Protein: 3-isopropylmalate dehydrogenase
Amino acid sequence: MKLAVIPGDGIGVEVTAEALKVLDALVPGVEKTEYDLGARRYLRNGETLTDSDIASLKEHDVILLGAIGDPRSVPAGVLERGMLLPLRFALDHHVNLRPSKLYPGSATPLKNPGEIDFVVVREGTEGLYTGNGGAIRVGTPHEMGTETSVNTRYGVERVVRDAFARAAARRGKLTLVHKTNVLVNAGGLWQRTVDEVAPEFSDVEVDYCHIDAATIYMVTDPARFDVIVTDNLFGDIITDLAAAVTGGIGTAASGNIDASGTNPSMFEPVHGSAPDIAGQGKADPTAAILSVALLLRHVGKTAEADRVEAAVEADLGSRGEAPVVTSEVGDRIVAAL
Amino acid sequence: MKLAVIPGDGIGVEVTAEALKVLDALVPGVEKTEYDLGARRYLRNGETLTDSDIASLKEHDVILLGAIGDPRSVPAGVLERGMLLPLRFALDHHVNLRPSKLYPGSATPLKNPGEIDFVVVREGTEGLYTGNGGAIRVGTPHEMGTETSVNTRYGVERVVRDAFARAAARRGKLTLVHKTNVLVNAGGLWQRTVDEVAPEFSDVEVDYCHIDAATIYMVTDPARFDVIVTDNLFGDIITDLAAAVTGGIGTAASGNIDASGTNPSMFEPVHGSAPDIAGQGKADPTAAILSVALLLRHVGKTAEADRVEAAVEADLGSRGEAPVVTSEVGDRIVAAL
Ligand SMILES: CC(C)[C@H](C(=O)O)[C@@H](O)C(=O)O
Ligand SMILES: CC(C)[C@H](C(=O)O)[C@@H](O)C(=O)O
Structure:
């Protein structure tokens, strides 16, 4: 396995080290290449993501990313639009996979959370993220700015199929989240695609809810969800809320997957670089370690993925109130494997 | 005061009756015209909203709406796109005002809600709600569908000013919610408009958060919000979530306001027509009654609005676990005025 590692900035570096500890303990001999991408490189030489970075990343089987960004020194949007999003497009990461599970001991803000265990399949290469928009008369009283959501049958169908397959392998329930009553063109395409693929997965029950109603269910009845499939922006919103109801982004892992296998998929914690706590050894590496589990499952190492998840679950259940020490979490999980 | 009343469908009719009880008790002699709009009329003659409906509604000072729709017999989207949204555009309801308050006794799903008391100023006539989009090759493997968010300085500035004024009259904090790191054209316009209007309201502290992060704060720290200003779609999403964290849409009121005063503004509960419980006298009319309070405040009857809100607050605090009886709630609130 050839692994590209992008530790990134802030706590990204710290949590990646722990994630690699866990990976090394389970799969010896992984060939790793480290990439210097993120705020530090941008501040040094103005580069965000070059063509040669992309070409070189493509020569790997899989990518592990820590976290990118430094809001104190890099203007908002520069690394998002210069690196994170271009990478998703260049590597055709159309399945943005975000599992949400309430682990024992996690600090959910909900009074009665129930059993939360679902995955969101967020489309990653279309919608409002395509940079299709423009502005005229900027800075004048007549300024006009647009953003266009682009949706293709090709792009929608591949994530819908992926989501159906995941639902069939889980509890057999798929929920489309959209806003079909207002966004008729995009919504119609999504709804029809789901309806047309459904007969191929006759064991999967199909449900629909508007994005506004979905946020209500997320706090009143999150146990109703098994697999959610949705577009790029709705997926962005609902997965942050999902992370919050399962106790925060400290345990939220994600995969940016090219389901065709043409390009390497990338796994990363949902959290950011958290410069406020960087360098203090107190970031929780759990989300990065769970990203390794997703990575292992993606490359077919199911037993190893199960072991990581079981070790994480046990660790979260036994932590109590003691403050997190980054390296100790990694050590404990390695010991528990 | 000339009031147009649109009871609508399902529980809309029942809660409107209670709302009018409260209005009549406080402001005698309101001249009311009832409008037959919604699912019943559509099913009878196929009409959703005619030009003459609009012309006639415009001759009123203010509008009270119950709820529209019957998902059992009217296809999703027909009344939304045929009546609710056209009304917002025809009457230039650019300020979609949605207060969220955690009343004593409300069933919040949050463990530690804190003191929730904020208002969302949602833009109501632009963004992704303008019907700007299209589709080609519909129903083929090459289908492509778009939705375009339209944002103008004129349209943004008037709601930003309205939101600043509301913040200045409340706790002095305004939070812009958007997704400026991805939606650069729309986001840039919103952010610059806020920055440029801010010096006129030097007592108002200005904050920004991405829509995804805003959903996290909504469940972990909703007390941080005072006034939120945001676009049409983000406002749709965040206000449903806000209603959920304050105990459900049973108490969520809203105003569709033409802040210029050219057209009548419209007040309505956020909830729908709930056909499952319609006709049983068990719908909670509180949101409709609180919509009357918003209406009264809008027409300058501040003391009357305060009395309604105080009576509602007392009623919610003293209800206990007894099931709601629609007419009794109205009677109790009238008695408590
Ligand atoms: C950083 C940002 C561009 C990104 C997104 O909006 O996709 C983030 O919020 C995420 O969810 O991965
Ligand atoms: C019914 C629908 C068109 C509407 C909206 O999306 O604005 C509703 O959700 C609302 O929030 O008033």
